[in-house]
Amino acid sequence: MENNNTRRNFIKQTAILSTGTIIGSSLFNSVLAAENTLKVENQVMESESENFQGNYSLPKLSYAYDALEPHIDKATMEIHHGKHHQAYVTNLNKSIETLDNNLVEHSKSLESIFEKMSKFPEAIRNNGGGHYNHSLFWSIMKPNGGGTPKGKLGDAITTTFGSLDEFKKQFSDASMKRFGSGWAWLVVQDGKLVIGSTANQDNPLMRLRGKGLKGKPVLALDVWEHAYYLKNQNRRADYIASFWNVVNWEAAEALFNS
Ligand SMILES: [Fe+2]
């Protein structure tokens, strides 16, 4: 029974949507509800169960590579999802094979890895983070996105930042100021919305020493150059502006409510 539960949890936590939403821990369950993808989740889980080989896998997107045009271009999406994200998944699985036995047991879900992050080698941190971060990123974008967040998230943004425009300004600032490669985040930290950023493929769920951003992710923006260089070259600000046209507020709202 324990093995079945572990396996089921692993499958749930790593299978990400054919609808672009993340399946898994309680963190993600509301996303599924928002996207009405329970049926898809079951299909994916059944499929993953049949083909389960103990490996993490690349999630399918819920939209075509060109569906975020003209804001995020097809070529970038093809390479970003099909090459970069795939590489994180491949290298995560390879890195797990080299782990000592006492860590293998803790590598069966990304949540478990992040909870014991400081015990894992750097390759697991980089590639596990890369897998989680990108999976989240795909799920909080959609074609014809943008607009205004509704519900409790919209209220919380207004209460916390004064207005949606002010929130966008502060989030964009955090995205611009992240030196080199990394991610900008909106997280829930001690019950409050907080904007911040992390370097490389770190994320706010990782238990790491130091003062890094901690919290439950609601929004994530990849500010690695591979996310925008083909279309925007060095103009990160243009890419950030484009993000607001594809952001999936319903998915973010579901994460917030979870
Ligand atoms: Fe990326």
From TrEMBL:
Enzyme Commission code: 1.15.1.1
InterPro entries in UniProt: Mn/Fe_SOD, Mn/Fe_SOD_BS, Mn/Fe_SOD_C, Mn/Fe_SOD_N, Mn/Fe_SOD_N_sf, SOD_C_sf, TAT_signal
Pfam families linked: Sod_Fe_C (PF02777), Sod_Fe_N (PF00081)
Catalytic activity: 2 superoxide + 2 H(+) = H2O2 + O2
Binding residues annotated for Mn(2+), in chain numbering: H80, H134, D222, H226
A single GO cellular-component term on record: cytoplasm
Key words of the record: Metal-binding, Oxidoreductase
SUPFAM superfamilies noted in UniProt: Fe,Mn superoxide dismutase (SOD), C-terminal domain, Fe,Mn superoxide dismutase (SOD), N-terminal domain
Domain Manganese/iron superoxide dismutase C-terminal: 149-253
Every Manganese/iron superoxide dismutase N-terminal domain range: 55-141
Gene Ontology MF: a single term: superoxide dismutase activity
PANTHER family: 37S RIBOSOMAL PROTEIN S26, MITOCHONDRIAL, SMALL RIBOSOMAL SUBUNIT PROTEIN MS42
Assigned protein family: Belongs to the iron/manganese superoxide dismutase family.
Reported function: Destroys radicals which are normally produced within the cells and which are toxic to biological systems.
Protein name: Superoxide dismutase
Organism: Flavobacterium xueshanense
